[in-house]
Amino acid sequence: MTTLIDLRAKGEGQGEETRPRHPEKAGRPDALSPRKPDWIRVKAPTSAGYHETKALVRDLRLHTVCEEASCPNIGECWSVKHATFMILGGVCTRACSFCNVSTGKPLPLDPDEPANVAHATATMGLQHVVVTSVDRDDLDDGGAGHFVETIAAIRRAAPSTTIEVLTPDFLRKPGAAERVIDAKPDVFNHNLETVPRLYHSIRPGARYYQSLRLLDSAKQRDPSQFTKSGLMVGLGEAKDEVLQVMDDLRVAGVDFLTIGQYLQPTKKHAGIDRFWTPEEFKALETIAYAKGFLMVSASPLTRSSHHAGEDFKKLRAARLAAQV
Ligand code: SF4
Fold first, then answer.
1. How many other C-beta atoms lie within 10 A of the C-beta of residue 112?
2. CA-to-CA dists, residue 223 to 162, 247, 253, angstroms
3. What separation in Å is there between the alpha carbon of 1 and the centre of ligand 1?
4. What is the C-alpha to C-alpha distance for residues 175 and 144, in angstroms, rounded to an integer?
5. Of 185, 163, 191, the residue nearest 302 (C-alpha)
6. Is the model's pTM score more than 0.85?
7. Angle between helices 48-59 and 113-124 (to 10 degrees)
8. Is a pLDDT exceeding 80 seen at residue 322?
């Protein structure tokens, strides 16, 4: 069976043309997935807070990974005005097979984007903000300068807000990651996403050891920064492989691990191999704590930025407790 691919207005509200979000996936056969179990179902977003967040995001022409990645938690997060801002535009130069962010040739950077993210952070009264981005392999610095500007703009507009960056891998961009680390975000997050054996099919443009080295170098360069990484399960990985990734992350000094269930954005994306049960997630969480992570969030609907503000407070408390 084949399905028409997802069409959606690129840069909604900005007068841009409607184009396929994933032209590179158009010719692929549909990938079948098992039916969603009960523990995955979420309610459609309807609250007033959700609509207020949506209006603000539109007014400031911002992108959020909440929408772009079709996050199942959007109703819950946006109703309490927690959104994850996606900078460097809305079009990614990679074509990962798990990701719903549009792929193609990106537009030039929006010079107002750092100030607009800062304005939204202050207006929403966020105590903790998560800033992520598309991959911009077309830029000499991979977008690092824009991350630095965004961090500085948030510090000016909302000095008490803690900042978490969820960065690309800056593959083949010498010096780029260092610039972001030196801008001193409170949390440096980079998701490994999956086990090394599946990189060629799930993250074909990335390299497992590059991603691991990035996390290691962030911790080496500034040990005061918390480091964080995330994994999806349900793509065909074995439990032993997940445990090996945990060990690799601990060797790289990573403080916080998130693990969630992969959900297939469209039938043209990688199929779901299986749904890990809530009990299996609990077991992963227990093992991860035993391996020495300061914080672990593992559940079917865990996402990198889910409850990031509350988790940051717990992370800080866990470090203090470990130092006593
Ligand atoms: S979990 Fe993260 S990406 Fe998903 S809606 Fe919440 S803030 Fe957005």
1. 12
2. 17, 19, 9
3. 31
4. 9
5. 191
6. yes
7. 160
8. yes
